[in-house]
Amino acid sequence: MVELEVMGVRIEMPANAPMVLLRDQLSKRHLVIWVGSGEAAAIAQALDGLTPPRPLTHDLIVDLLEELDHNLTEVRITDLDEGTFFAELVVDDGRIISCRPSDAIAIALRAGVPVNCAEEVLAEAGIELADDADDEGDDPIGDEEVEAFREFLDHVNPDDFVTGEEPDD
Q1: Cα(first)–Cα(last) distance of the chain, in Å?
Q2: In the prediction, which pLDDT does 131 show?
Q3: For the range 140-146, what are the long-range contacts, defined as Cβ-Cβ under 8 Å and sequence gap of 24 or more?
Q4: Could you tell me the sign of the dihedral formed by the alpha carbons of 135, 136, 140, 145, in that order?
Q5: Structural domains in the chain?
Q6: Residue 52 pLDDT
Q7: Is the dihedral of CA 88, 89, 92, 94 positive or negative?
Q8: Which among 36, 45, 84, 123 could disulfide-bond with 164, CB atoms 3.0 to 4.6 Å apart, if both were Cys?
Q9: Which residues span the membrane (predicted)?
């Protein structure tokens, strides 16, 4: 398994298709996963540190585990089959719960646990973008990386990354 950093949520134009961008710190490979709008909002809220006045579904899952004296230890993106990504929640008692990657990422961010990815998935779907500007203290996604990502988006079609998850619209 390779630990990934959640870089953010982006909208692919002109289709308005939300996606989450993850990055392997060591190899600088990136993983793009198309997600539904509700999950994209949940991931973005967690990244921004926003806490709703009452728990939303992903918050509720973390709260339920804690109330049952369990903790999430990690989430795993385990497989890619015909363009659909698969993920798992790993609980401290050894239980493994299958889920969509978008939900796994939203829950991981709330629980403060790593998002790990099978090397085979990253090898198949990972893309390499320009070197990061992190070393210079710039924005986590530097100008060169943004430009490379835009170049990638100019040549990709959402159908190239079928996730099996339909937007909530």
Answers
A1: 33
A2: 55
A3: 140/7, 141/7, 141/8
A4: negative
A5: 2-128 (3.10.690.10)
A6: 86
A7: negative
A8: 84
A9: none
Would you say the C-alpha torsion 87, 38, 13, 22 has a positive or negative sign? negative
Quickly count: other Cβ atoms within 10 Å of residue 45's Cβ: 19
What's the mean pLDDT in 119-146?
Answer: 67
Residue 153 φ/ψ, nearest 5 degrees: -65, -30
163 Cβ contact partners less than 8 Å away, ≥ 6 residues apart: 33, 34, 35, 83, 84, 85, 100, 101, 102
Specify the pLDDT at position 134. Answer: 46
Query: How is residue 92 written in tokens?
Result: 């401290």
75: amino acid identity, one letter: V
